[in-house]
Amino acid sequence: MLKFSLLIFFFWLFGNPFIAILVMILLLYALDRRFVGLTPSLFKPLKRISRIKKLKQQIDRSPNDVSSKHELARLLMERKKYKDALTWLVPMQHMLEESAEFWDDLGTSYLNSGDEINGVSSILRGLELNPRVKYGAPYLCLAAHFSNGHTEQALSYIQSFQSINSSSCEAYDQLTTIYKKLGNADAAKRSIEEGLRIYRMLPRYKKRQERKWAVRLFFKKWTV
To answer: Are 67 and 88 in contact (CB under 8 A)?
Structure first.
């Protein structure tokens, strides 16, 4: 009703239904980006491309800048360019051998490039260094990978994730998807409830970060 009233107001204000609809869409987009974050950012991909360009220039000036190389690889991973990310990550193994996050990045890139052996072993090495790295996301990455025909392995990684008491609603959103893929609707529902319970307990600043995933979990309640 509120949206309809706003649409009528904009039509009265601009006198053109197309402009009214466009303004309405822009307003809803702005509100979502400010308070929820379900819609993708229009500017983030452009900022990412600009940052990648700057990092490459920085690396050209300082070939031994490991932190810039690692950041560049992560940005390439965000763009789903995992093979390109590997060209930067693989040579840094000896320099970042004590970084759990590095090994998870390396393993994730291997997995998404079709190399299961190196992918799994690299992620497990990261978990050995820090079982709580990335709030347990590596366990879910492995569970999702093995959910295609390797149910027992997938469930074992899910149990490992649950043992660390993650406070990430995003992780529980991923867990719900994995359980649905395994055909376990009851477990998926429990994951949704646990994710929403965690969200209600978060401090205000943390709720802003997790709100997108809490909303996704809320809507998944009606589709499981």
So the answer is: no
**Cα gap 92→109, rounded to integer Å:** 14
pTM beyond cutoff 0.85: no
Q: Which residue has the tokens 């799994």?
A: 120
Residue type present at position 209: Q
Q: Is 75:48 a contact under the CB 8 Å cutoff?
A: yes
**Could you give the CA distance from residue 179 to residue 147 in angstroms, rounded to a whole number?**
9
- Which tens digits make up the pLDDT trace of 137-195? 999 999 999 988 888 899 899 889 888 867 888 888 989 999 998 999 999 999 999 99
Domains identified in the chain and CATH numbers: 47-115 (1.25.40.10)
Q: Which two tokens stand for residue 113?
A: 């490039």
Cα 29 to chain center, whole Å?
A: 20
CA distance 197 to 209: 15
Helix, strand counts (H, E) of the chain: 12, 0
Burial tier of 185 (Cβ tally within 10 Å: 0-12, 13-18, 19+):
exposed
Q: Which of 67, 124, 120 is nearest to 100 (CA)?
A: 124
